[in-house]
Amino acid sequence: MSTTETIEFPRPVTSEGLPDPLLLELVRDNPLVPVTGPGGIKAWLVASDELAREVLSEPDRFSNMIDPSSINSRANMVVIDPPDHTRLRKLAAQAFTPRRVRTLVPDITGLVTSLLDEMEEKGPPLDLVDALAMPLPTRVICRLLGVPQDDQKHLRYWSHIFTAMTAYTSEEIGTAVDAMYAYMHQLVADRRKNLGEDILSHLIRARDGEDALTEDELVATVVLLLVAGNETTLKSITRGTMTLLHTGQWNRLVAGEVTPGQVVDEVLRHQTPIDTGLFRWAKIDTELAGASIKKGDQLFISLHLANFDPSVRADAHVFDPGREFVPHLAFGHGTHFCLGSPLARAELVEAFGQLARRFPTLRLDAPLSELEWTVGSMLNAPTHVPISW
Prior knowledge:
- The protein is α+β, with helices and mostly antiparallel strands.
- The chain is 46% helix and 10% strand.
- A six-stranded mixed sheet has the order 1-2-3-11-8-4, covered by helices on one side. The chain has a three-stranded antiparallel sheet with strand order 5-13-12.
- A hairpin with a 2-residue loop joins β6 and β7.
């Protein structure tokens, strides 16, 4: 890579949840730029819609694994390549069919209603994160997996620390990961003795002929479901509600001028929860956007920057739920497109739809400049959002 000075990445988003202005300026005419990552690692930043799709759809050139010759026993679908990934995804997908997700909607509706009932009973002012954004995905995931309510606080902590990049020490992260995997192994063992209709039971039953998920693969898949399903939805509700309120688009949702589904897609695009980026490593010497990429080079694929690509969307910086839909990259692309995206969408549609119906006069109770954001994580959002109505 170039020996010239490079910009540090990741960089904090603005108080409005927008990509760093310096990054936006840098990638406007350069969709592939050298950056310095955590720990001084030299890497490439992939920042356009076209390049992101190219990198994410070509596992023969760009690997999910730091060392493609070695597969960690804890590896899940996020960090392995085909053909292993293809096999695992095919098995896990049996638990996430459209029909099965549709059967979960009444439970999701009931959980949202219950949380909003609690909000109404407590009355304003409240913190959106504590009242809705944090407990909803945790309760949904725990309901789907059959996790006892008393254990939810542990899963919430584990999912938070699992996505940390620099916010915790390697020892803290390692301890939390060990505890999470130990818990999940026990949960799987207990569920095998008493299978039900929850997602975990369906994953245990998943077969393709004589093939089935191994114990390690099953646990890793459950951990992925916990982390991805918890953190991404939490951040999307937080950032989405904040953005709807401060841009005035909340009134359009309340009035029915835009649908909850439209709001969800624009929230995912404009406030992409994985705002730091996905990671890939070059498997071979190759070329990308005219640059020579060497085998072993690391790439950050910024889904957030790609969703702001001006060549794809006019006025991409504007939050407009009524804009003409163009497929975004919030759920990734290619072989690793998010398997749980229908479930995430169902949660978000219910959350924004019911919140607008129940609290049409909802408002922010603090200026954006006073909201504190998470730092050092792959997924970022305000830690607290004061609201009133």
